[in-house]
């Protein structure tokens, strides 16, 4: 296991979710789930983060914010879309201002479905994201790195 | 010990000691919050990971300033453990922090700017006490050389209780612990994002982390001077002090910079300067 997998730092952004999934994301940090056991820290700063945990269907106004956060994260990085809203737009899909899922704005690596996504599945999603992070680092080292 | 050898031992061993202490600190913090916490070597994993990340710097100068910060912190510690002049150690220590502030000022990020300003405020708050500690140690040892202070047969702390108290007070600033973690904090999600370190990433951030670890060992070295040759008592004191620092870190919220600075100066004046005054008329 490389150091990248032992110390994944996340940034969490609420792209117009109903807050249900956000509370579940924050629940992962509480004593019951304690993701710091795996070295996972919630940094709140894109320049320090490795994993972008994003909830909600992304509306027309925060589209740019989502892109901006993604662009500010240094490579290698992965995106975890948490909740069915982030996966596809969910119940808000038909709303006039919802773009319908995070994947419409930035490339998503892991989808964690659920309304709201349970902390267990969020942690599972992040752990799966770690192996993708590792793959991206390897391709970065060998020079065939894509920007996604 | 040969001064060059001592400096070399510091450069090699300080990261090991510092990482272990920081790792235990994180575990203890987690336990105080009812969590399990990360592995002891987590700070080491973090630094290694940061080195593997791609470098993103909008302004190249910041990496240079942070490199100087790290170099001067290492120089400070090497000089300290080689038994050099304590005044020179303090100057080098301050200079290192000036580089950190410059590094934070390079970018146009408002978070980093406020962090840099607060870093300066912290420097202003702690500097008088550090100088007073040097004066106090001089009064007891009749020498500014750390090499001679370390050989003190008794315990300078018995003559310098006020100075020691004041020093412990400002230690909280230096360890970047709550309630005085104004500039940047170990805890995420706050009004300043990450304060002075907001704009650093990858290797640059790794250098900042490493410098913090060296700095921790230098600060513990200062505590050692108060105990002279009584190493066992010194180790015991360090354990107690670190425990109290972590406890305070976990049960207080950050204060405003005015309160931080005024209280630091108040403690410096009453406990530190009072102690020096009493000693000089004795
Ligand atoms: S998936 Fe459900 S809980 Fe999560 S943001 Fe959407 S509506 Fe809220």
Automatic annotation (TrEMBL), chain A:
Question: Which residues are in the NADH:ubiquinone oxidoreductase-like 20kDa subunit domain?
Answer: 18-128
Please, which domain of life does this record's source organism belong to? Archaea
**Record's InterPro entries?**
Complex_I_20kDa-like (IPR052375), NADH_UbQ_OxRdtase-like_20kDa (IPR006137)
**Which molecular-function annotation in GO is an example for this chain?**
metal ion binding
Q: Which coenzymes or cofactors are required?
A: [4Fe-4S] cluster
Is the Iron-sulfur keyword given for this protein?
yes
Q: Does the keyword Kinase apply?
A: no
Alphabetic keyword roster: 4Fe-4S, Iron, Iron-sulfur, Metal-binding, Ubiquinone
What Pfam families does this protein map onto?
Answer: Oxidored_q6
- The coiled-coil segments of this chain are none
Classification via NCBIfam families: PRK06411.1
Similarity remark:
Belongs to the complex I 20 kDa subunit family.
The name this protein goes by in its record: NADH:ubiquinone oxidoreductase
Organism encoding this protein = Methanospirillum stamsii
Automatic annotation (TrEMBL), chain B:
The molecule here is called Ech hydrogenase subunit EchB
Q: Where in the cell is it found?
A: Membrane
Q: Which UniProt keywords apply?
A: Membrane, Transmembrane, Transmembrane helix
Please give the start and end residues of each transmembrane region.
6-24, 56-80, 86-108, 120-140, 152-171, 213-242, 262-281
Tell me the domain of life: Archaea
Q: How does it sit in the membrane?
A: Multi-pass membrane protein
Q: Does the keyword Signal apply?
A: no
Keyword hit for Transmembrane:
yes
The cellular component terms of Gene Ontology attached to this UniProt record, alphabetical and capped at eight, are: plasma membrane
Q: Which organism is it from?
A: Methanospirillum stamsii
